[in-house]
From TrEMBL:
Key words of the record: Hydrolase
Organism in which the protein naturally occurs: Microbispora bryophytorum
Protein name: Glycosyl hydrolase
Pfam families reported in the protein's UniProt record: BNR_6
Molecular function terms, GO-annotated: hydrolase activity
Matching InterPro entries: BNR_rpt, WD40/YVTN_repeat-like_dom_sf, Xyloglucanase_GH74
UniProt GO BP: xyloglucan metabolic process
Gene3D superfamilies on file: YVTN repeat-like/Quinoprotein amine dehydrogenase
Length: 358
């Protein structure tokens, strides 16, 4: 068994491999000095495919893929993700790459400014989903601190007609007709910065990340700017599950693939300086779908640490739980967060982390 860890940073892509449960070995950088804002490991089919949303700087953003585990990379001859001329919009970044669990060759891409793109050739070329771009609420969408970015794509694992997306600071939207139409799905998510009586808007919530377990597709977990929430009806309504946390502000949220009731967050100091709570990394785990929480830090530095963890820089899967920091360290746990070990250090600013077993 080989575990592959893909680490996207401000200056390049790093791959780390582990064989038969051994230590991860970090390989030399790919795309040196190029920002990697999104990465996916597509294990569908007989040949794994790596996908990377890159930012060439002067040459702009693009998506590249590799079918030999990162040895060589390819790019479509025309811009793979591009806004139609009618939008009068240019692509800023690709923030999310998400293979569909229910359609063999489909890959979804979330872009900035907030838009959804669909690929039917395993991520080589993409077409914009018009229904979301043309949503009547779009003129009122406002960017969050990280821009107007569509950062989360949640395809239903068995019904390709159903898909959810989250954008900052727009909220969660869902479609039940393969993206033709969309509706805001933010009921009970509080926006305390709004006046009294208007703190539960239809849209405009600052959603940081949404996670799902394929065994319980109706249940979603959401890290908000002002709380942590769970939905048991694919976003139709939400329940606050953050009361047991020492801080309900954070960016990432992820679910253990071995247990749909087990999820992980990394609380931060909110809008003060967005550093780890108590100036040390603590991953909080719930084993009862957010009913109770317990912090775990064995093996993590005692501190003080001042580097944050971004929304896509935490991942859970068959290979374990992993997170990367803005000061270039990557940690992993093989026991559901009970203990942690250092995988890499002195990397550039970590933007995204994905893991898979090959």
């Amino acid at each position: 068994m080989t575990a592959l860890l893909a680490i996207g940073t401000r200056k390049g892509l790093f791959l780390a491999r582990s064989s038969d449960g051994g230590s991860f070995e970090v390989e030399p950088v790919r795309f040196s000095s190029i920002g990697i804002h999104s990465v996916a490991i597509d294990t569908r089919g007989s040949t794994p495919r790596l996908l990377a949303g890159i930012e060439y700087g002067h040459f702009g953003p693009s998506v590249m893929w590799s079918d030999d585990l990162g040895e060589t990379w390819e790019e479509a001859t025309t811009p793979p993700v591009a806004f139609p001329e009618r939008t009068a919009t240019a692509l800023a970044r690709v923030w999310q790459l998400q293979p569909s669990p229910s359609e063999p060759d489909v890959v979804w891409a979330g872009a900035e400014p907030a838009a959804l793109f669909r690929s039917e050739d395993r991520g080589a070329t993409y077409t914009m989903v018009d229904g979301l771009w043309d949503h009547p609420t779009r003129p009122q969408w406002q960017p969050g601190g990280g821009g107007l970015c569509l950062h989360t794509v949640i395809p239903h694992p068995s019904d390709p007609r159903r898909i959810g997306v989250a954008a900052s600071a727009v909220g969660f939207f869902r479609s039940d007709d393969a993206g033709a139409t969309w509706r805001p799905s933010n009921k009970n998510i509080r926006a305390p910065f709004l006046p009294e009586g208007a703190q539960y808007p239809e849209f405009g919530q600052c959603v940081h990340k949404v996670a799902q377990h394929p065994a319980t597709p109706e249940r979603l977990y959401l890290q908000h700017h002002f709380g942590v929430y769970r939905s048991d009806d694919f976003g139709d309504s939400w329940t606050d599950i953050g009361s047991g946390l020492p801080s309900d502000f954070g960016f990432p949220i992820t679910v253990d693939l071995d247990d749909p009731d087990r999820l992980f967050v990394l609380p931060l100091h909110g809008d003060v300086d967005r550093t780890p709570l108590g100036y040390r990394y603590q991953v909080f785990r719930s084993d009862d779908a957010g009913g109770t929480w317990h912090g775990h830090s064995a093996g993590l530095p005692e501190g003080p640490v001042h580097a944050s963890v971004l929304r896509d820089a935490m991942s859970a899967g068959p290979a374990g739980v992993f997170f990367g920091t803005r000061d270039g360290e990557v940690y992993g746990s093989a026991d559901a967060g009970e203990t942690w070990s250092l995988i890499a250090r002195h990397l550039p600013d970590v933007l995204c982390v994905r893991a898979a077993v090959l």
